[in-house]
């Protein structure tokens, strides 16, 4: 680690120092591709619109108590960043600049990876770009029935390369945007000038390779091509129909730049593996898999020659209705064809339904992708949780009745005060931003219960201590202070600089920032609610905004942090993995903590007066609720693949896996019913429950699925047999099914005995009591003994 003696971020940005507008970032792409393959069009996007919720949070400015590091342990391999723009650490393409740069990148439905000259059993050696699409019958399963895991094998389907690429070749990336990147294959003899550039965009309809004076080769590994058709003219392009070594159908389009004298009909198969075109090609080659026969081919013919270069996200909120739009920059004259995921089809604006095609391809872990026409795709979320606050929440909750009920139970007040005094005496864990954040968030929730639910003035004593604890972090005087990393542009703990990549769950390497910082942001929001004057004191507001900017920046042109580091607005949830090369891509093992980060953004925006931030957090929660129930929580009563998906692929995940009912760790390339810290069911499922929060009922909205999960793993006393804080997590979660049983457990314990160890370090007994009472509908005016619990006894 090295420290920068001075840093311009401490200064206010001058107008002349601002980066190019978002639309101008295409300059980098043109530089990379080196030619204009046709008109560049961008669907009209006004990111400055008053209605657009993606607005800057606050002016970039690193606070003076935050040291600045110039030498992160992870090198920026092959990154071309002419204008020193912010870089994405947690996005789908990070493998392109990490490790050996030869792990896959998943765009869905395809994944691609650089061959890097690698060889081995069943590996076709190449210095070009491998392309893969895997069918369900090719999956590899883990042990057991149901299978503990499934993985998509890394099996080369086709390859795009050139003979000019060899052991002196390298890979660079440029134009690192939230939904896209350019990947370049270069040769040392020509410096950084690419031989081939791949404009990589999530959901891209083709794998597109832009050649710059190179000789194009399409390769087929395995036993080689089954067949290659004669050239077929399609407008200004030439098409070849290809059958790979499994006999599966692909189409390839050769699109020379206008005016280039190039004989596209002169491609020849030199052997069963190589299909080679004339040298000195300038233009694009586009490849796509075609499972639909002539109908699919007609779709691809219509789209050939065009590709997406970037996407811009905008959004609006009107009462409980949210809308977000991805507007693509199209290069080429043909209409733009993109693929979307099942949750996109669920929420697609009805005006765009006619643009949906019958063309579908399986993705690795996100179900069936559907091809759709359009440069501007709009999606609707019609039931935003706009009334959600810090209290327990359901769409029909009666908070006045909950308060009345809670205040009528003297033991609850006693428990809350005991929880507060225990929190006052408890040392905030010094070694971890994650555990410190959980501890402070628990403390804040206890104070909220005392003040808002129980109307007890005793909270003031605890608030004084909580402010003092937060002040230590705001002043950056904790054991492992935060540093601003000027290499990768973010806020990191210094623990990993001395203790290695695994310190504090990889925080220094950008793992889990939405988890770690989300707890602090939530705590600040509660403090600002209990004492609004705190917001104006010192750096309290600026420091909290700084955390939000690190993991949920909303400014496309931000100087210090990348746009939306953690949350992927295309897949609809966050990725927890940061700067770690990964054979299976990004992953996330806690949907619930992802949702809690969304809640934290929403509530901090409300408390600090940033309406745009509040709206973004609210929309994040809506997407999370949709995608968690589509991709993470597995049930026939949860959303399935689009209606016209193959009959044997109605579920998102394969039948041999679905009885697990939960993904466990969801990767881009595999699903593993496990955690990083154990394989017991209470760990796998519990990490998708904690923290029990106001958002829990909204995120785990399918009560039928909650009951299915409970019956399979925790019924008949199994939950009560779990040791430690996980027991409390499980019982609290059961409050949706059996509020009275959970209430009695947290109020009286087992056999009249209570153990404090049953409560997780990020939770409290008083909060669990209030939560199960709220979501379970406990509390009838006058006599709580007349309660009719929801569901039946489950413990």
Automatic annotation (TrEMBL):
Name the record gives this protein: glucan endo-1,3-beta-D-glucosidase
Limits of the Glycosyl hydrolase family 81 C-terminal domain: 408-769
Region (Disordered): 1-20
Family note: Belongs to the glycosyl hydrolase 81 family.
GO annotation, cellular component aspect: cell surface
Assigned EC number: 3.2.1.39
Keywords noted in UniProt: Carbohydrate metabolism, Cell wall biogenesis/degradation, Glycosidase, Hydrolase, Polysaccharide degradation
Pfam families per UniProt: Glyco_hydro81C, Glyco_hydro_81
Enzyme class: hydrolase
PROSITE patterns recorded: GH81
Entry's Gene Ontology molecular function annotations: endo-1,3(4)-beta-glucanase activity; glucan endo-1,3-beta-D-glucosidase activity
GO biological process: cell wall organization; polysaccharide catabolic process
Gene3D superfamilies named in the record: glycoside hydrolase family 81 endo-[beta] glucanase, Golgi alpha-mannosidase II, domain 4
Catalytic activity line of the entry: Hydrolysis of (1->3)-beta-D-glucosidic linkages in (1->3)-beta-D-glucans
InterPro entries per record: Endo-beta-glucanase, GH81_C, GH81_N
Ranges of residues in domain Glycosyl hydrolase family 81 N-terminal: 72-395
């Amino acid at each position: 680690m090295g420290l920068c003696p001075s840093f311009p971020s401490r200064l206010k940005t001058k107008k002349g120092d601002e980066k190019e507008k978002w639309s101008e970032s295409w300059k980098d792409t043109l530089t990379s591709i080196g030619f204009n393959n046709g008109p560049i069009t961008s669907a009209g996007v006004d990111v400055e619109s008053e209605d657009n919720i993606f607005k800057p949070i606050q002016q970039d400015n690193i606070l003076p108590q935050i040291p600045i590091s110039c030498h992160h342990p992870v090198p920026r391999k092959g990154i071309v960043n002419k204008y020193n723009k912010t870089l994405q650490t947690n996005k789908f393409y990070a493998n392109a600049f990490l490790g050996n740069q030869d792990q896959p990148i998943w765009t869905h439905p395809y994944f691609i990876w650089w061959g890097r000259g690698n060889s081995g059993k069943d590996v076709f050696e190449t210095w070009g770009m491998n392309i893969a699409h895997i069918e369900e019958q090719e999956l590899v399963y883990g042990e057991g029935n149901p299978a503990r895991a499934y993985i998509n094998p890394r099996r080369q389907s086709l390859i795009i390369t050139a003979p000019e690429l060899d052991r002196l070749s390298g890979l660079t990336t440029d134009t690192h945007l939230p939904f896209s990147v350019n990947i370049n294959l270069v040769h040392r003899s020509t410096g950084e000038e690419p031989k081939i550039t791949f404009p990589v965009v999530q959901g891209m309809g083709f794998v597109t390779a832009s050649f710059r004076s190179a000789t194009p080769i399409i390769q087929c590994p395995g036993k080689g091509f089954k067949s290659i058709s004669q050239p077929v003219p399609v407008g200004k392009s030439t098409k070849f129909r290809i059958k790979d070594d499994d006999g599966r159908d692909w189409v390839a389009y050769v699109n020379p730049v206008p005016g280039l004298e190039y004989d596209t009909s002169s491609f020849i198969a030199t052997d069963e593996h190589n299909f080679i075109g004339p040298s000195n090609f300038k233009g694009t080659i586009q490849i796509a898999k075609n499972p639909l026969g002539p109908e699919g081919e007609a779709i691809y013919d219509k789209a050939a020659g065009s590709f997406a270069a970037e996407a811009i996200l905008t959004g609006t909120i009107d009462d409980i209705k949210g809308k977000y739009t991805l507007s693509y920059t199209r290069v080429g004259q043909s209409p733009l064809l993109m693929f979307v995921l099942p949750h996109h089809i669920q929420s697609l604006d009805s005006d765009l339904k006619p643009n949906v095609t019958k063309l579908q391809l399986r993705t690795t872990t996100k179900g069936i992708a559907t091809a759709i026409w359009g440069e501007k795709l709009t999606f609707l979320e019609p039931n935003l949780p706009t009334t959600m606050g810090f209290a327990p929440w359901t769409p029909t909750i009666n908070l006045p009745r909950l308060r009345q009920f809670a205040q009528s139970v003297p033991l609850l007040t006693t428990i809350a005060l005991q929880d507060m005094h225990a929190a006052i005496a408890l040392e905030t864990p010094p070694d971890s931003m994650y555990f410190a954040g959980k501890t402070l968030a628990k403390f804040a929730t206890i104070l909220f219960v005392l003040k808002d639910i129980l109307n007890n003035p005793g909270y003031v004593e605890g608030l004084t201590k909580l402010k003092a604890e937060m002040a230590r972090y705001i002043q950056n005087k904790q054991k492992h202070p935060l540093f601003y990393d000027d290499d990768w542009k973010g806020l990191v703990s210094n623990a990993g600089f001395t203790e290695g990549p695994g310190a504090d769950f990889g925080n220094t390497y950008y793992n889990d920032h939405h988890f770690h910082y989300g707890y602090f942001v939530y705590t600040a929001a509660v403090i600002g609610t209990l004492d609004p004057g705190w917001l104006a004191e010192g750096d309290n507001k600026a420091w909290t905004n700084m955390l939000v900017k690190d993991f949920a920046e909303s400014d496309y042109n931000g100087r210090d942090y990348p746009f939306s580091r953690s949350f992927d607005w295309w897949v609809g949830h966050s990725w927890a993995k940061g700067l770690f090369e990964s054979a299976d891509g990004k992953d996330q093992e806690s949907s619930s903590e992802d949702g809690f980060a969304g809640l934290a953004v929403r509530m901090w925006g409300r408390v600090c007066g940033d309406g745009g931030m509040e709206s973004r957090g609210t929309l994040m929660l809506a997407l999370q609720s949709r995608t968690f129930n589509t991709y993470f929580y597995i049930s026939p009563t949860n959303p399935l693949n689009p209606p016209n998906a193959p009959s044997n692929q109605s579920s998102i995940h394969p039948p041999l896996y679905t009885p697990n009912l939960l993904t466990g760790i969801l990767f881009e390339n595999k699903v593993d019913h496990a955690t990083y810290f154990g394989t017991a069911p209470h760990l796998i499922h519990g990490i998708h429950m904690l923290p029990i929060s106001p958002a829990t009922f909204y995120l785990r909205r399918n009560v039928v699925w909650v009951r299915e999960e409970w019956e399979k793993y925790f019924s008949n006393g199994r939950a009560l047999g779990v040791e430690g804080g996980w027991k409390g997590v499980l019982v609290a979660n059961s409050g949706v099914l059996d509020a009275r049983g959970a209430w009695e457990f947290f109020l009286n314990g087992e056999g009249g005995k209570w153990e404090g160890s049953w409560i997780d370090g990020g939770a409290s007994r008083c909060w669990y009591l209030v939560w199960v009472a709220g979501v379970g509908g406990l509390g009838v005016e006058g006599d709580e003994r007349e309660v009719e619990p929801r569901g039946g006894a489950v413990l």
